[in-house]
Specification:
The complex is a heterodimer. By secondary structure, chain A is of the alpha+beta class. Chain A has two helices and six strands, in the order H-E-H-E-E-E-E-E. Chain B has eight helices and eight strands; from the N terminus they run βαβαβαβαββααβαβα. Classes of the chains: A alpha+beta, B alpha/beta. The interface between A and B is large, with 42 and 38 residues.
Chain lengths: 117, 224
């Protein structure tokens, strides 16, 4: 639902890097978005296409790397990945401890890199 | 054809908002005005909680409220009827508040003269979780009729809050809401969160919440 303001921020940052690197055309942008975020990839690209018209980033493709949900087991210290659908049933694959873990990754909101010429 | 360059960006997409929010937090620290961001689904009791909070704190603290309704002014009018300063932000259909909007609201409120300002954010559990408002504490409400599975459906919101108020506990006997299961789900996402059970209707648990908030504001005002 909030893809539009997010896309405006992405474009602003990308154009700033395009200027400082002296490139005329941005080809692709790699984002790292945590799996806890509800951003829709398709809408991000649509808004980006709309907002970037007439800029150096027009036509650039957004590549989205979804950063996994990772938990740290409070019982044995093991870190493990899980899927959003399994949040209600957290079981440590190392020691079997249930529902006793802390979130360590999955909230990222990052621009990693871009390809340009 | 020019060579394709790979440019490292390594920037947080929300960096601008985070910066505005950090500046706002610092400015409020200087004027000793504590800012609380209250979030929840529509109908879970944000306005009722604010009215209960006003009743509990109005004799001790100078209060203000920022309301973020998309269209109506109903909530701001209820607060103003209590004789408390309330500002209605026109979010223009936006699904959340950001730090710039909150800065404007605080300016209209003349917040520097207040001890505590509560933001009633837009009612939804998705978007407000993504935008730092500049608040010192994030508080959310989950009401019993919404169900104990909400931490599974909206994990981000539960992961960023300092306090979870479980409201409408007077409905517990009528419902299959599993408090213990909910508690485990929330603590896995956020082990530091404080969970309090309240009913804005009967007043149960309100003393605990108001007492917590009063202590937080007093601690905040004693900071250098």
């Amino acid at each position: 639902m909030h893809e539009l303001p997010i896309t405006e921020e992405i474009l602003k940052i990308v154009l700033r890097h395009a200027r400082s690197n002296g490139v005329a055309k941005v080809l692709s942008i790699t984002l790292q978005i945590g799996k806890l975020s509800d951003l829709e990839d398709e809408w991000l690209q649509r808004y980006f296409d709309y907002l970037s018209k007439g800029t150096a980033a027009e036509g650039a493709r957004l590549k989205i790397e979804r950063m996994p949900l990772k938990f740290h087991c409070n019982a044995c210290g093991h870190s493990y990945e899980t899927q959003t659908a399994d949040l209600g049933n957290l079981i440590c694959p190392n020691c079997g401890e249930a529902d006793n873990a802390a979130l360590v990754s999955g909230r990222e909101y990052f621009i990693k890199e871009m390809e340009a010429q | 054809m020019e060579e394709v360059k790979l440019i490292e960006v390594k920037e947080d997409i929300l960096a601008d908002n985070l910066k505005t929010a950090a500046e706002l937090r610092e400015q409020l620290r200087r004027t000793k005005t504590m800012l609380i961001n209250l979030m929840s689904s529509p109908g879970s009791g944000k306005t009722s909680l604010i009215l209960r909070t006003i009743a509990g704190l109005r004799d001790h603290l100078r209060l203000g409220v920022i309301e973020a309704d998309i269209e109506s002014k109903v909530d701001a009018e209820k607060v103003a009827a209590q004789g408390i300063e309330a500002v209605q932000l026109r979010t223009g259909g936006f699904c959340h508040l950001d730090a710039v909007m909150v800065t404007q609201g605080l300016g209209e409120l003349k917040a520097a003269d207040l001890d505590l300002v509560i933001i009633e954010n837009v009612g939804n559990l998705v978007c407000p979780a993504e935008f730092d408002t500049g608040a010192h504490k994030n508080v959310m409400i989950l009401s019993v009729p919404e169900g104990d599975d909400k931490p599974l459906k909206y994990p981000l919101m539960f992961s960023i809050c300092d306090v979870l108020l479980v409201n409408k506990i007077d409905y517990l006997p009528l419902s299959d809401f599993d408090l213990e299961a909910m508690r485990k789900r929330v603590l896995a996402l956020n082990p530091r969160i404080e969970i309090m059970e309240v009913s804005c209707k009967t007043g149960a648990g309100i003393d605990q919440w108001v007492g917590w908030l009063k202590k937080e504001v007093e601690g905040f005002k004693n900071l250098k």
